[in-house]
Every structure is written in C-alpha cells, then in structure tokens.
Write a structure and sequence with these properties.
heterodimer; A: 259 residues; alpha/beta; Rossmann fold; six-stranded mixed β-sheet; 10 strands; B: 257 residues; mainly alpha; 84% helix; elongated
Chain lengths: 259, 257
C-alpha cells in the first residue's frame, strides 16, 4: 500500500468484448505525482485499461477511483469534471488534421475553457516551446510534421491545460531511438516540473525504464508483477523476465495463426 | 434449420442496427437543443454543405429541367397539349425532381464526405481525443453537420428549383419555339406556394437523412481503410434509399387532399 492516498485506484476491474475477456479483475494503485508504466504484449488490454479509467469504456465490474471518488458510470457535469483532470497522448498522436498545430494545442482552452484566441494562442506557443518547437510550427498543419514532431505537439496538447493526470499511450512507438529518447526526456521533464501523475503504457523497455518510477506488468487481464523500476532486473518472475528480454521461449505464448 | 437460423440472425442484426441508429438520432436531437453551441463549426459546415454543393445541385436541376421539357413536349404534342409544358415542368421540378435530385446528389457529395471524415477520425482515435479534451463529439462533430444539412438543403433546393425551371425555359424557348413571356406567365399562373414549400419540407428531411446517415456510419466505422470505405458506401447507399422512401411517404402526407 502507498503511504499517500492513491491518486488512481483500480480494484477488481473486469471488461469484456463479447466472449473476449480483456480485463479479468485488474488491481492497480498510483500515488500522486508518481509515474507508473504498464507493460505487456499487444492485445493484453493496456489501451482498454486507459479508456476504462477515462470513462470512454465502462467496465462490467470493479471500482475505479480518482482522488478517492468512484468514477465508473459518471454522467453529465460529473463526467465533464472527471475528464477535466486528464490529459492524454495517443499512440498515433490523434491530432486534428483540419486544424493548424497551435489550434490543436489550444483546443481545450478554446473550446472548453472559452479562452480568447489571442491568449490561447500565446499559451499554445509557450507550451510548444516547452516541448522544443518554434512558433512557426504552430501555423503548420499536422500532416506537414514528422512523427517525432507530431508526438511533441500531442504532448503539448496533453499538458497545456495543466491536468492532474496524464496518460501516455505508447509514446515512443514508430520513432527512431534518438527521437524516442527525446520524447522520453520531455515526458520526464513535463511530469516532474508540473507535478503530474502519469500512467503510461508501452512495449518499449528503454522508454519504460526512463519514464517510470514504478513498472507494472499486465498479462491475461491482470497485473502479474509490479515494483520499482530498478527492481525489474532482479525479479525471478518468468513472465516479466521473458518480456523484458524479448525471448520467444517462456510462459507467454504468442497466438500465431499458421497459414 | 440453417436457413431459419440465418433469417433469424439477419432479422436480429437489422433490429440491432435500427436500435443503434435510433439512439444515435436521439442523442443528436438532444444535443442539438443543449449548450454549448459550436458556432464556428456550424459556419464551416454551412459553407461546405451549402455553398460548395451549389454547382452540383445547379447543374443537376438545370439538365433535369431541360430533359423534362423535351420529354413533356414529346408526350403532350401527341394530343396537342404542349401549352401545359411550363406548368408541368414547374410542378415536376418544385414538387419532385428538384428535392429528390438535389437530395441524391448531396447524399453522394456530402454523405460520403461526412462518413469518410468521421470514419478516419474514429480509426485514428481523433474522436477519442475529443472526449479526453472534454468536448462532446456529438456536439462538436454531429450537430453542426446535422444543423447545416437540415437548414441549408431547403435553400439549395430553392435555388435548384429556379435553375431547373430556367432549364425548361431555355429548351422551350430556344428549341421548341415557345414565346418567352408566355412561358413565364404560364409558370407563374399555375404554380402555387404549396408546390414550392412542399419541396422545401422534403429537402429539409433529406438533409437530415444525409447528415445522420453520414455521421452514424462514420462514427461507428471500424478497422482501417477498409472500414472507412465500407462506412462511406453504407452512408451513401442507405441515404439514397431512405431519401426515395421518405419522398414517397412525404408526398403521400403533403398532398393527401
């Protein structure tokens, strides 16, 4: 148990899609200002975990508490207040291609907080500068940016409204190792500077080691191991060992359909 | 037994799809009449749906009016009733062909564009991103398209009516040797306000159908490019079929007497 009351607490969360049981009684706690990375293979339910906490998906059973308050089945104003606590960086960045970069970053300020355009633009450009992008990038369309720049813009959009919690969904997927490290550094800097509670999901162990205070492994719909980042190399958990060393042999069997 | 099971499954799927679509339409209506209103989005959609559809609607109704005048001449000249051509062209365009042709063309142009855009937004998680940014996707994406299509289709059809009647006028005057002032007088004399307004009501209903089918299919698209393609096809085909069915039903209701 954490000494502080957890910022995020999941208990016995179950989520299925038809006959496919994705989360099978998942328990996880994250302390305030802690950065936790959930690792696990493809299709193990990592994205479903994030979407369940956000309320985009509703679990069939279990409890999800934010700041000690139950959040499953929220609606109306209570749900809006719940979402206002979050920022999220999506795997594919999910930038709105109909808007220029600065309007993507300032989206929440303009559409939700109804800030005037001049102030919103100034804040968007300031946040872009924090992720290493110059003001001229603000006028470009997302399609004119490289993958790494899109991730930076997505990071700026996730943090611009000062959220309490930020989710990072595969933040380094599709990036070269150097750009991946740049994004990892930016994530660490943003999270620590702003006192954000961060939950990330990734397969990238280099990324996980860099951005996590604590790592949890998701397998078969449950957290099967969790501990401090430095403990990850000293565990005798066969699932975790197979995953972090990327071995085909071990208890985790990949479903490969033979042609 | 297998055949019965197949029929049963198909029927259940139809009921499920109908239920989903009804819920989608209900959410759209509910969010149309609640705050916040995204005026900038509504303006953008009004330009896209209304202004940029003008050329395609204008061309369609122009040539429909021209063809109608030729056909009427071929028919009416058999029993010496060619004088009725201006009236029949005006009634045909305003009551039926104007709204239906415009509806079908807008279904092809706008319904497909809406489904493709929202479908791409769905598969690239842009709709999920809207939710995480505390913006309701129904209000931000669906309501502006629904309002713009519902309110601007009548305006498009009104312009299409004028262009279509003008097409009939061109053919009648320059090919069939009608007197221009006589043609205009005949058109005005027998055209009633109800003939035009009935077409505008139909246009509004068709606008609703196009926007709802485009948004529903795009919003619920799955998979990658193939899913977006299927959503686009479904949006256009279902909108066209619903427009033709609704046209028949509305004709029965609006001209019941």
């Amino acid at each position: 148990m954490h000494r502080n009351a957890p910022k995020i607490a999941l208990e016995g969360v179950i989520k299925s899609f038809g006959s496919k049981h994705v989360l099978r009684g998942l328990d996880l706690e994250i302390a305030p200002q802690e950065s936790v990375v959930v690792i696990g293979g493809s299709g193990t339910g990592k994205s479903v975990l994030l979407k369940s906490i956000l309320g985009i998906l509703t679990p069939e059973q279990g409890s999800i508490k934010i700041n000690g308050q139950e959040t499953t089945n929220l609606s109306g104003r209570a749900y809006d207040d719940h979402l206002a606590k979050f920022g999220m960086l999506f795997q594919g960045s999910a930038l709105f291609d109909s808007l220029p970069v600065w309007q993507n970053v300032a989206f929440k300020l303009l559409q939700v907080q109804r800030m005037n355009r001049k102030d919103a633009k100034a804040r968007a450009l300031d946040t872009l500068a924090q992720v290493g992008l110059t003001p001229d990038v603000g006028e470009l369309s997302p399609s004119e940016l490289s993958g790494g720049m899109q991730k930076r813009v997505a990071l700026a959009r996730a943090i611009v409204a000062d959220p309490e919690i930020v989710f990072f969904d595969e933040p380094t997927t599709g990036l070269d190792p150097i750009m991946a490290d740049v994004i990892n550094d930016l994530i660490v800097k943003c999270v620590k500077d702003r006192g954000i509670t961060a939950l990330s999901i990734t397969h990238d162990m280099a990324s996980a080691r860099k951005i996590a205070d604590r790592i949890a492994m998701l397998y078969d719909g449950k957290i099967i191991w969790e501990g401090a980042t430095k403990e990850i190399d000293h565990t005798d958990n066969p699932y975790l060992n197979q995953f972090i060393h990327g071995r085909a042999d071990g208890p985790i069997k990949m479903q490969v359909h033979r042609l | 037994m297998k055949f019965l099971a197949l029929v049963g499954r198909t029927f259940l799927r139809f009921l499920e799809a109908t239920g989903r679509f009804s819920l989608f339409a209900w959410y759209t209506l509910r969010h149309t009449f609640s705050l916040p209103v995204y005026w900038r989005q509504i303006g953008r959609q009004a330009v896209d749906i209304g202004y940029y559809s003008l050329p395609v609607v204008g061309l369609t109704t122009l040539f429909t009016g021209m063809a109608l005048a030729l056909q009427m001449n071929a028919g009416f000249s058999r029993f010496d009733a060619a004088n009725a051509i201006p009236t029949v062209v005006a009634l045909g365009i305003t009551r039926e062909l104007g709204p239906v042709m415009a509806g079908l063309m807008v279904a092809g142009r706008i319904g497909a564009a809406i489904a493709a855009e929202l479908g791409t937004m769905r598969v690239t998680e842009q709709i999920d991103a809207l939710v995480t940014l505390s913006v309701n996707p129904y209000k931000y994406l669906v309501v502006p398209r629904f309002l713009a299509a519902t309110l601007l289709m009548p305006l498009l059809v009104l312009i299409g009516d004028i262009v279509g009647i003008f097409g009939g006028f061109l053919v009648s005057v320059y090919m069939l040797d009608f007197n221009a002032s006589h043609y205009i007088t005949q058109t005005w004399e027998y055209l009633e306000v109800h003939d035009v307004t009935s077409g505008l009501w139909k246009a509004s209903a068709f606008g609703m159908i196009v926007a709802l089918m485009g948004c529903y299919n795009g919003f619920n698209s799955k998979g990658g490019a193939q899913g977006v393609g299927a959503a686009t096809t479904n949006a256009v085909v279902s909108a066209c079929i619903l427009i033709l069915i609704t046209n028949y039903l509305l004709t029965g209701i609006l001209f019941a007497s």
